[in-house]
Design a protein that fits this description.
Blueprint (H helix, E strand, L loop, with lengths): L15 H24 L45 E3 L6 E2 L15 E4 L7 E13 L2 E11 L5 E2 L9 E2 L21 E10 L11 H11 E11 L2
Parallel strand pairs: 2-9
Antiparallel strand pairs: 1-3, 3-6, 4-5, 4-8, 5-7, 8-9
Length: 231
């Protein structure tokens, strides 16, 4: 047993105060264990006997005290601090799946957006080829407006009720997927979501340039994602 320093011992060299505390604590544990032992197996008065305590009957729960390895930073507590974002089936700058191009199904991709700014009445989306120019403008593959900002997503190949679409640079209304010249290297396609403070109130089939001009006057925020494709 470790001896106490002289300064902590009494004149007799003992530590009576500490010893009395230890005895009191030991007495409490003995009394507690005795009481529990008396309860085990006793009659509760309703014809049932208390069952012996088994720790296995009370499984423990492990609480994580550290963040996952992939966690970085802190979660925002104020929604207004979050940025307006759009997400596509590919990562920003990633390759576009052929199903969304002229080499396959040529259908519009599923998209989702979040943290829509206050005052947003409508969402509009445009897809342009930053690597191709037509009459001095990036080649427009798709413009769609009239999207409900509360829906936060657009299903693949879907045109929701109430949505309107412009005439793309292929001469078609709606979506026209990437279709760069074979062997010409990768093209960069920008999909932009616009938060509008008013409804577009445009008709289907108007030229994409008219759609984009109106969008520019009503947009209060925008966000984009890039996809790459080559043939």
């Amino acid at each position: 047993m470790r001896r106490l320093p002289v300064s902590a011992r009494g004149k007799s060299g003992q530590a009576p105060t500490i010893r009395r505390v230890h005895r009191a604590t030991a007495g409490f544990y003995v009394a507690t264990i005795t009481a529990l032992a008396a309860l085990v197996g006793c009659d509760t008065g309703d014809g049932k006997e208390l069952q012996p305590y088994d720790p296995a009957d009370f499984p423990t729960t492990t609480v994580a005290t550290t963040a996952p390895a992939s966690f970085e930073g802190t979660f925002p507590t104020d929604p207004s601090l979050e940025a307006f974002t759009i997400a596509a089936p590919w990562p920003d700058g990633g390759a576009i799946d052929a199903r969304h191009t002229c080499d396959d199904l040529d259908i519009s991709p599923a998209l989702s957006w979040g943290a829509v700014p206050d005052g947003t009445v409508e969402i509009a989306i445009a897809m342009v080829d930053d690597s191709a120019v037509s009459d001095g403008q990036p080649f427009v593959h798709w413009v769609i407006g009239g999207l409900d900002p509360g829906e936060i997503a657009l299903v693949e190949a879907d045109v929701p009720a109430g949505a309107v679409q412009g005439l793309n640079f292929f001469g078609d209304v709606g979506y026209g997927g990437p279709c760069p010249p074979p062997g010409g290297g990768p093209h960069s396609y920008r999909i932009t979501a616009y938060a509008l403070n008013q409804q577009l109130e445009l008709a289907d089939g108007l030229p994409a340039t008219e759609f984009l001009a109106t969008i520019a006057t009503l947009s209060i925020a925008s966000t984009d994602v890039i996809g790459v494709y080559q043939r």
